[in-house]
């Protein structure tokens, strides 16, 4: 069975806490999703479903509130400029990154509200 490249077998992953009384319960802390929010989240999650985009996003997010030049993303990730451009465009379109043009280079920052929304949905209570 494909496990998405995860290091632990799927059978070993604990998704929901065991409450010790025979029940396992996972509930979204934010309640059921309406259509609009579900569509918005699906766009973000689809953008995140790529290892290169996850690496780009984590590299940019690791800088906190500082902008990161596209020129500084190729070396650490071992990808060329066109690959960076392609993937950052997907992340911008998904609402996860903001892009600012400064001369010939684009600078990227994370959009905190997008991450807060993702965290609120992924927080199983």
From TrEMBL:
Keywords: DNA-binding, Transcription, Transcription regulation
Domain of life assignment: Bacteria
SUPFAM superfamilies: Winged helix' DNA-binding domain
UniProt keyword annotation of ATP-binding present: no
Domain HTH arsR-type: 33-125
Family matches, as Pfam families: HTH_5
InterPro entries per the UniProt record, alphabetical: ArsR-like_HTH (IPR011991), HTH_ArsR_DNA-bd_dom (IPR001845), HTH_MetalResp_TranReg (IPR051081), WH-like_DNA-bd_sf (IPR036388), WH_DNA-bd_sf (IPR036390)
Entry's Gene Ontology molecular function annotations: DNA binding; DNA-binding transcription factor activity
NCBIfam families: HTH_metalloreg (NF033788)
Name of protein: Transcriptional regulator, ArsR family
Species of origin: Corynebacterium lipophiloflavum (strain ATCC 700352 / DSM 44291 / CCUG 37336 / JCM 10383 / DMMZ 1944)
